[in-house]
Amino acid sequence: MMTRHIRRTRRTVPVAAAGAAALLALTACSSSDSGGLSSGSSASASSSREPSGTVTVFAAASLEESFTTLGEEFEERHPGTEVTFNFGGSDSLASGITSGAPADVFAAASTRTMKIVTDAGLADGTPAAFVRNELEIATLPGNPDGISSLKDLTGSGLKVVLCDEKVPCGAAAQKALEAGGLELTPVSYEQDVKSALTKVELKEADAAVVYRTDVRAAGDKVAGVTFPESADAVNDYPITLLKDAPNTAAAKAFIELVRSDEGQRVLTEAGFRKP
Amino acid sequence: MTAPHLTPRARRRAGRGAPLPLLVPALLGLAFLVLPLVALLIRTPWGDLPDQLTSPEVWQALRLSLVCATAATAVSLVLGIPLAWLLARVEFPGRGLVRALVTLPLVLPPVVGGVALLMALGRNGVVGQWLDSWFGITIPFTTAGVVLAEAFVAMPFLVISVEGTLRAADPRYEEAATTLGASRLTAFRRVTLPLIAPGIAAGAVLAWARALGEFGATITFAGNFPGRTQTMPLAVYLALQSDPEAAIALSLVLLTVSIAVLAGLRDRWMTAS
Amino acid sequence: MTHTGKTPPDGTVPGTAAGGTPAAEGLDAHLVVDRGAFRLDVALRAAPGDVVALLGPNGAGKTTALRALAGLVPLDGGRLGLDGRLLDRTPPESRPVGVVFQDYLLFPHLSALDNVAFGPRCHGATKAEARALAAALLERMGLADHAGAKPRKLSGGQAQRVALARALATRPRLLLLDEPLAALDARTRLDVRAQLRRHLADFEAVAVLVTHDPLDAMVLADRLVVIEHGHVVQEGTPGDVARRPRTDYIAHLVGLNLYQGRADGHTVHVDGSDDGTGTGTGPVIVTTEDLTGPVFVAFPPGAVTLHRERPAASSARNQWRCEVTGMEAHGDQIRADLTGGLRLTADLTTVAAAELGLHPGAEVWATVKAAQTHAYPA
């Protein structure tokens, strides 16, 4: 309970920060002089050296557990470095980056959201998928309603929550439903995958269509049910170095770690699949 | 030709009316509050506005917002005025603590408030499970849930405002009423309520405005379903995920409507009093 | 005017123990309010038609007594009977009591008419009945033209009359007035006092008013009850109280020099003499009354004559050597405070003061004729 709480709060704060950054940009104020990243400028000048300083990673909310682990590992491997994460909805993060929020690395939960950044010409090179995530049905522990397929969710009397179509998990769920030729009216279109999951964890909803990784992270508070239509709604997670990265060297090193066998091991453990 | 003569006089008058150490921060404060709104106006995609305004979803969300904020204000009035009276006029042990508890929703992050509401009134909540098993009532994911979430966040504004007015109001008017044969309830209804009407109005406006902009507690407790629980702030937030320009347009609609309503009410009160 | 009884100075009323039957008519109250450091213990009796003034310094407990009568302060002891009914436990809204508050407390959101109609409405009258009654009362008060005015549009005197009309509208058996003239300026006060006197004279039930102004009390009331430190210290008709004050407070209010002492025929040995010896050799006042035992002696400041030298052939039997401690203009006269042989206040004309070369610190002889003193049993 305690750890859950901490995780929630940690997650909401960066979202708010990204929102604030976006607003700042809207008010036509420059936000490139944000403090705390000054050490990065010297590091980018000598990229061949051992990474040091702060590396700022904007990553999709679903990556929180595994990236936090990798971040600690990175700091251990490269003493003198510090990894700062901003976890949030990929769209918020992308609009934060296009509004000038200072970041070194962007890991999105969909190619569509990554495209916002590449279209703005802010990605350094072509982003490549490093993991993929599949949908799963999260049900109450022990699956008391006996849900075994996506079709079961369309039955009456069940309270199902989906992500809103405007966020990646919602778009993916819609794709899966279309692939199965199903129509589903949920009780709510949640603003992100975590709040969809929370509704099941609090037993307010009977089921939610979320990512495998989220089911895994929720432990025994929910039960996961796989369904074949999820194959049609696979989400690739691209990662990229950002053009305006204040700390290119450390950013490159972090991306390397994510792509390495060790990184893949941590991510697979969290429920991601290899691309 | 008169302007050069008028200007120094006008400046002198302003200087006499408001000392500089007050005037400067006052204007800075005003700029600080208004600048973001101006920026919003500057960046508004005016071309998209007609599309937004003709979209049924927008009207649906706007109507739901107005209905829910008004209902939440009504709930706040019905429960909040007696609560304020209790806090202002009745001595009881632990009154300070109760007052602190009343203001708790002000400091609680709304999302936490929403989770707390789920734990209290949700299908599996402390009280909600009985509502469900005895009466078959579940509040989350319903319009009633939106009203409750908004009232939870907005009521403290009303209670604080009304309590302050009650404290400033002379309790001897109530005494005078009782010596004329009025029961305590009659004295409250016919004397105290009219006396504190301005405070109630101010509190109701604050509560209504807060309820109208409510996001965190609403989406957490009541979810997001168009026509049922999707209020304007929720629509704005979700639009921001994929189409920031649409989000700005939606915000503008919300702003315009709320300013129109508040200004309209203000005029009515001004003439009524 | 008839009085059902006189209250002894110790403040107890015979036969008012709990459970006793209150007088069949009028007010029969023994008010005890305990506030720790302050204790109010006051007995009040009045017949219908009486106007009783509670007179006393600030903090004496007058207003507490009034609030206790109205039921706004609960009694900690004693009892409250009105027209044969015990009202101790009756909440204020059920007491046949009307109150005119110090600053009137007219409901600011209601017109004068609706303020007056408020009470009848609470007592079950229809809106039309209540308004008709209120209109009649305002008419009687000469305020028919102001019936529609909000209280903030009324002058002080008008507001006072509306407040009186409002209190009378419920036909109370006990009318309470808290400092009814205190909120008015001196000029308005004169008019309103005269009007109020008329209205109170017309009032057929008991009226109790609280004031710290002796003039208000004497003009408006036919009986004074003087309260100090929560207790009744003197009670009587205004003339009685003015002539025979029993405390320094009243003596000061009515402008008399007052001394307490022991009489032995025509001589009174004043207690607590200024010389501080306490040997009984203190000042002596010669009076015309022939009394024995504890007495009060009073004489007005105007009865004092001042001389630069000891008057050799004065007919005045009372002579004291004094020193001037203070002087102030008092109308067209000079009021001098003196200490020495006897502490006293003297009034003299400005011319006399100039001829005497009077100034603080000056030594003078004060004389008072025995015929101008007044001694009465303590």
Q: What do these coordinates show?
A:
The complex is a heterotrimer of chains A (275), B (273) and C (378). Chain A is of the alpha/beta class and 275 residues long. Helix content of chain A is 41%, strand content 21%. Chain A has ten helices and ten strands. The longest helix of chain A has 25 residues, at 2-26. Chain B is mainly α. In chain B, α9 packs antiparallel against α12. Chain B contains 15 helices and no strands. Chain C has helices at residues 62-70, 112-122, 127-140, 156-168, 186-202, 214-220, 238-243, 248-254, 350-356; strands spanning 27-35, 38-46, 51-55, 77-82, 85-86, 97-100, 174-178, 206-211, 223-228, 231-236, 257-270, 284-299, 304-307, 318-330, 333-340, 344-349, 363-368, 374-377. In chain C, the strands form four sheets. In chain C, strands 6-7-8-3-9-10 form a six-stranded mixed sheet, with helices on both faces. The longest helix of chain C is centred in the middle third of the chain and has 17 residues, at 186-202. Chain C is of the alpha+beta class. Chain C is 24% helix and 34% strand. Chain C is elongated. Chain C folds into two domains: 27-106 and 154-243, 3-Layer(aba) Sandwich (Rossmann fold); 255-377, RNA polymerase II/Efflux pump adaptor protein, barrel-sandwich hybrid domain (OB fold (Dihydrolipoamide Acetyltransferase, E2P)). In chain C, 46% of the residues are buried. Chains in contact: A-B, B-C. Chain B binds chain C through residues 170, 172-173, 175-184, 186, 190-191, 194-195, 197, and chain C through 70-72, 91-95, 97-99, 101, 105, 107-110, 118-119, 122-123, 166-167, 169-170.
Keywords for this entry:
heterotrimer, A: 275 residues, alpha/beta, D-Maltodextrin-Binding Protein, domain 2, five-stranded mixed sheet, 10 helices, elongated, disordered N terminus, B: 273 residues, mainly alpha, MetI-like fold, 15 helices, 0% strand, ABC_transporter-like_CS (chain C), nucleotide-binding (chain C), ABC transporter ATP-binding protein (chain C), Transp-assoc_OB_typ1 (chain C)
CATH superfamily of the largest domain in chain A: Periplasmic binding protein-like II
Largest sheet: spatial strand order of chain A: 2-1-3-10-4
| CATH class call of the largest domain in chain C | Alpha Beta
> N- to C-terminal separation of chain C?
26 Å
Low-confidence stretches of chain C: 1-19, 273-279
Low-confidence stretches of chain A: 1-48
Q: Give me the CATH architecture of the largest domain in chain C, please.
A: 3-Layer(aba) Sandwich
Query: DSSP helix count of chain C?
Result: 9
Strand content of chain C: 25-35%
- Taken together, the total number of domains of chain C comes to 2
Quaternary: heterotrimer
Radius of gyration of chain C: 25 Å
Give the biggest sheet of chain C: 6 strands, mixed
Order of helices and strands of chain A: HHEHEHEHEEEHEHEHEEHH
